[in-house]
Amino acid sequence: MRLNTNNLVSISEANQNFSRVARLVDEHGAAVILKNNVPRYVLLEYVQFQGEEIADDADVLAIGKAILAKHRKAFEELAK
Questions:
Q1: Residue 20 placed within a domain
Q2: Is-contact 25 44, C-beta < 8 A?
Q3: Percent of the chain surpassing pLDDT 90
Q4: Angle at CA 31, nearest 5°, toward 27 and 35?
Q5: Whole domain around residue 38: which residue ranges?
Q6: In a domain, 33, yes or no
Q7: Which of 2, 11, 18, 76 has the least CB density, counted as fewest CB within 10 Å?
Q8: pLDDT tens figures, 50-71
Q9: Is residue 76 part of a domain?
Q10: What count of other Cβ atoms lies within 10 Å of the Cβ of residue 7?
C-alpha cells in the first residue's frame, strides 16, 4: 500500500470527526490513522478489505511449491 499524505489523520481527529475520515476513504480508498505521529491503523472500504482477504487457489499452490523448493533438503531429512 502506498502512503499518501492526503489520507493521514491523527487519532484524535479521527475520534472527533469520523465522518471526515469516512469521506477520505471514499475519495482515496483508504485512510491511515496516526497514533503519536506513527501510522497505526488503516481504514479501508469493506469491498477492498474483502478482496484482499481471499487468496486465489493458484496463489496458494505457487506459495506452497516455493516453500517446498526452498526447504527441500529439510523435508527430505524429515521424511527419513
A1: yes
A2: yes
A3: 38
A4: 155
A5: 1-44
A6: yes
A7: 2
A8: 666 566 777 778 888 888 888 8
A9: yes
A10: 19
